[in-house]
Amino acid sequence: MLRTLAALAVLLFAAQPAAGQESTDLSKLFPAADGISGWKTDGEPLFYTQDNLWEYIDGSAENFLSFDFRQVVAQDYVSPAGRGLKAEIYEHGSPLMAYGIYAQMRSPGLALHEIGGEAFSDEYSINFWKDRFYVRVAVFEKGEESDAALKLFATAIAAAIQGGAAALPAEAGAFPEEGLVPNDLRYLTQGVLGREKFPPAFVGTYMFGGEQGKLYLATLIDSAAARDTFEWYTDEMESFLATAEGAGGEYILGLGDDRYQGDVLVFSFGRYLGVLAGVKNPAERGTELVKRMVERLGAIDAGRRKVPSAPKD
Fold this sequence. Notes:
The chain is an alpha+beta fold.
């Protein structure tokens, strides 16, 4: 039953493809053979799908596949001075899945850029997501020429991807900002809280003084599914104590002893399930945080109910 609920949670967000999604020739998104400052293509593009991704990125293939990977194309370029550059375009099943793999690669503190939905860079690469695509452009040697090329190639590929930068689901905005580590919001599709059956969830990192905790937020297909998952998760605990709360709408808030995570604060509100883990005294540290999150989730649902449905033919 719980495996089915987890699958439904994936379908809720992950299986919503971008409008007009069709099979895409990703090679057409690359710059022309000599279109950027004299850089020329070096060999033919390489294509990989779900069936043979391991041939390209053996150690990381399972991670990409967990984010509904569809295909990738890679193209090498060479500069007039003989420097090398590689551009990779990964296509996933939805914008959320592309963001999910992008956020897996991002680390707090790296420089961010306004390319696509968001981009980060390190010494050798620029990475960004836009629509259902995750893109990585990398060089093999540092230098001014390489730095300039990274931005030119990333910007050109982002521009070739049609449409605007798809927004994340509104639930991504439910995490209160106070104490939230910037640029570290992730989306997990498997292994949430160390469990195969736990549904996919957003997770934000919070600092409580010098202590770091993780706040997870899963969205189920409806309130019954959320309550079923809540009961399954809390029934596994060594001990659990729950009370009904009322801020932002009625919800269940409880403190439990997770055998893998230690003390956790758990809440169930409508179709949402949240868990604060990794901190001592989570009830003391997280009750107000959960209250603010629930208030935001209530506002999100209220806003959705106000949106008029499309007229019937």
